[in-house]
Structure prediction request, 316 residues.
Amino acid sequence: MDRGSHGEELGRIIDGAAIARRIRDKLAGEVEALAASGVVPGLAVILVGDDPASAVYVASKERACAEAGMNGLTIRLPATTTQRDLLDQVRALNDDPSIHGILVQMPLPKQIDPDTVIRAIDPTKDVDGFHPINVGKLLIGEEDGFAPCTPAGVQELLVQSGVNTLGKDIVLIGRSNIVGKPMAALLLQDHLGANATVTICHRYTRDLAAHTRRADILIAAAGRPKLVTADMVKQGVVVIDVGINRVSDASAPKGYRLVGDVDFDAVRPLASQITPVPKGVGPMTIAMLMKNTVRAAAMHAARVSALRGVAIGEMA
Ligand code: NAD
Ligand code: L34
Prediction:
């Protein structure tokens, strides 16, 4: 147990970077086995425009693919790309048998409708889990789809940190399609790392603190620095901070630093466990993307061999 400068107990830090590292090492072994059977998992990432944060995330995804022995293809398109051109790229990747996962990095420039692009991705290659088919499967609890990487990473962090979610009150801040909504769907399932009572708060929630104070587990994904303060949590809470915000800091080498949505120093003494930003949820997003892509490749290999079986059966 760490102690603060006044001897007070501090919540244990959940080391997302270390947990993600273990997952990625294990996946490298699975990639090797798949490659030996003739299938090298392939992930295509499309980045449109030059949003600096997106460029950082996409570069990390590219590095992670290479390191795991996967085939990583990054397609960088100018900010002026038309929706039609982007859709053409997506369709070409749908038809490319060496690509098992397709990801279009969000946000997209304003001339492109993200929903149209997401629907164009083959659901069996939608390793982001954003296609309505995969969203529907997640809600129903069908496990042959893909769950979005960030909420899947949060669930994995909870499981690996020994946090029992069964029957617990989990409060989410944020209801986006990328984080909040799929997070709620995952935590509601009759499943390990789930079976929770879930409350979803958002910008129109009245008296946010009244909800968060009841939380056994608090998951913040609002994109608001220091939204969660010490007076908003109860003693012993597990805090997962999904928020990634750049705040200017003249003393930092890049002129900014990353902070989450939680006032970390103030909340940590009350928490039993807490994720930092960076090195909390962020690295898990990448690990889960790798995991989804390896699974997409394995499912592809299984479909191919089933089809071969049918073809051989027909010949007999
Ligand atoms: P978003 O902007 O789409 O959604 C933010 C949500 O927060 C909205 O539903 C809004 O209603 C709610 N909200 C905003 N202000 C609020 C307030 N004052 N009180 C209550 N609710 C409030 O964002 P998003 O894409 O879900 O991302 C949220 C944050 O998580 C961002 O900081 C983003 O950078 C980060 N993020 C991190 C990862 C990761 O891998 N760690 C992945 C995705 C997003
Ligand atoms: N299509 N768009 C699509 N899929 C996604 O899953 C994402 N996201 C979010 C933005 N747009 C997307 C990501 O990949 C956010 N996100 C993401 C990925 C990685 C990290 C953070 C967010 C990450 O690696 N964070 C590091 C710090 C990185 C830095 O230095 O900026 C961390 O330790 O938190």
Notes: The pocket of nicotinamide-adenine-dinucleotide (ligand 1) is lined by residues 150, 173-176, 178-180, 201-203, 205, 208, 221-224, 227, 242-245, 281-282, 285 (CB under 6 Å).
